[in-house]
Each structure stands twice: as structure tokens, then as C-alpha cells.
Design brief:
This protein has 288 residues and is α+β, with helices and mostly antiparallel strands. The chain has seven helices and twelve strands. Among the domains are: 39-178, no CATH class; 207-239. Helix content is 52%, strand content 16%. Strand 5 (55-58) and strand 6 form a beta hairpin. The protein is globular and about 45 Å long. It starts with a helix and ends with a helix. Mean pLDDT is 71; it is low at 1-6, 12-27 and 198-288.
Length: 288
């Protein structure tokens, strides 16, 4: 009897070991035909210095960037970055690679991030108190980043954070200050061999970035076309005018010259003849 029980237990162990009743969590989705579709994810870094405290949504992946600016994205899906309800930028899926570094090169967004930095020193990283910042941005009714951040807006953000958080030691940043820090960050990344992608390949900024990109392309195309058309028109018009003026001047000058020549010749001849005759006749009479 004991042997039968042991044999049955051994059989059950062997069955479980072969996967007879087991299941596994692969974070995938089952399709209609019973196969499992695994979702591929990658890691990226959001920097203007590393930015901590920014919300991201990248397909099935969402969260808040850490002290390294880390975010997780689902391959093939766009990424959206925001603070509370304020959108910062949208990155196209085609621009996302594993271990990619996204440099926030939109000056208005950089101004905002550096103003929100808790210790006011962006060189050691940008740390944002998400809850405090969300309250302040909501209080001043900032639902989008304008193409030119007014000093009054940045001052209101600074004042609001100072009232809400005793730990906030930051200050409103000017465009010049934000740009200096961006240049330093980009140089540091370049020196370390970390590649960042230019704005055009990163995707769309909300507000200024996307408009700037679209306007840039449109202006280039329009200016190129306009310049070409204007150049051709000017050449054609100038050529025509020059030709007309040349012909008119030639014809007019020729006619005038010919007219003057005939007039002068006829006049001179007549006068000369008359003068000659008069003089001759006069001379003859006098001489006689």
C-alpha cells in the first residue's frame, strides 16, 4: 500500500515537472488562434540634465521619470510627456530606440523645467515635485506652454511653489539662462559619446516646437518657390524691359538722329546755300 502511494506521488511530481498543470506570466496578450503576442519595451532618458518628476505615457507603459530621467516605452507606440495636465512634448514612435537620450531642446519647455527645479541648480539634475508643481500650474490656469513664456507666468510659478513647499529654492529662469544650461548639457553628452537626436527627428513639441518645425518646412518650400518665381519673373521682366528700352531707344535715337541729321543737313544746306547766294550776290553787287 505504501509503495502504491509513493508511486502515485512520484507520478504527480513528474507530471507537474513536465508542465502538465503549470502557467507562466509573460505580460503578453493571447490572440484568437491561441498564440501569445509579447510586447517589446525599451528604456529611454529624458534630460535637460536628468529630469525627475515628469509623467510619461508610452503605449502600455506609463509612470514618472526617476532621478536619471528614465522612462519605459512600448515599441511602436508614441510617448507623451507632461506635468500634471500640462503637456510638454510628444515623441514619435519611429524616433524611439532602446537606451535613447531625449534632450529637451525647446527653450520654453526648458525654462519651465528649470524654474520648477526644487533646488534651483539644474547642473546637478532637475528635480520636480510633481504634486506641488501640478497644483501651481493648475492655480495659474496654465494648460499649454506658450511660444514665448511671459516673465509674469514664471514669477507666478516661483511664488506659488514658495508658498506650497518650504523645500523649494528655485527661481524663474530667463531664456538666456535656460539656453546656457542646455548648451552645457549638450556638450557634456557629446563629450561622453552619448548621442541625442535633433528636434526634427524627436517628434513634435506641443506649441512652439511643432509649429516651428512645420513653419520651417513650409517657409523653406515657399521661399524657395517664391524666390525662384521672383527670380524668373525679374529676369524675364528685366530682360523684356531692357529689350524694349533698348529697341525704343535705338529706334527713337535712330529716328531722332536721322531726323536731326536731315533737318540739320537740309537746314544747313539751305541756309548755307542761301547764305552763299546772299553772300555771293551781295559780294557780286558790292564788287560791281
Amino acid at each position: 500500500m505504501r509503495k502504491i502511494i509513493l508511486s502515485s506521488a512520484l507520478a504527480l511530481l513528474l507530471l507537474n515537472g513536465c508542465g502538465g498543470g503549470s502557467s507562466s506570466d509573460n505580460n503578453g496578450e493571447s490572440s484568437a488562434n491561441g498564440t501569445t503576442n509579447l510586447k517589446t519595451t525599451g528604456t529611454g532618458y529624458y534630460v535637460d540634465s536628468a529630469v525627475e518628476g515628469v509623467d510619461y505615457l508610452c503605449g502600455s507603459q506609463s509612470g514618472t521619470t526617476d532621478e536619471n530621467g528614465t522612462f519605459i516605452f512600448e515599441a511602436g507606440e508614441d510617448c507623451n510627456f507632461s506635468i500634471g495636465g500640462l503637456p510638454l512634448r510628444d515623441i514619435n514612435a519611429s524616433s524611439l530606440d532602446d537606451n535613447i537620450t531625449i534632450l529637451e531642446d525647446n527653450i520654453e519647455v526648458a525654462q519651465l523645467l528649470q524654474t520648477l527645479d526644487m533646488d534651483g541648480n539644474a547642473t546637478n539634475g532637475i528635480t520636480i515635485d510633481k504634486n506641488a508643481s501640478s497644483k501651481v500650474l493648475d492655480n495659474i490656469n496654465l494648460d499649454e506652454i506658450p511660444t514665448d513664456l511671459d516673465k509674469d507666468i514664471l514669477d507666478a510659478i516661483q511664488q506659488g511653489l514658495e508658498e506650497i513647499s518650504e523645500e523649494y529654492k528655485g527661481s524663474a529662469k530667463t531664456k538666456e539662462e535656460a539656453q546656457v544650461h542646455l548648451d552645457e548639457t549638450e556638450k557634456d553628452l557629446t563629450d561622453k559619446g552619448i548621442k541625442t537626436r535633433p528636434q526634427g527627428l524627436l517628434g513634435e513639441h506641443f506649441g512652439n516646437g511643432s509649429v516651428g518645425e512645420e513653419n520651417g518646412n513650409e517657409n523653406q518650400e515657399q521661399n524657395g518657390t517664391t524666390g525662384e518665381e521672383n527670380s524668373n519673373e525679374n529676369q524675364e521682366q528685366n530682360g523684356t524691359i531692357g529689350e524694349q528700352n533698348g529697341n525704343e531707344n535705338q529706334e527713337q535715337n535712330g529716328t531722332i538722329g536721322e531726323g536731326n541729321g536731315n533737318a540739320n543737313h537740309s537746314g544747313s544746306g539751305t541756309i548755307g546755300e542761301q547764305n552763299g547766294n546772299v553772300n555771293h550776290a551781295g559780294s557780286g553787287s558790292i564788287g560791281g
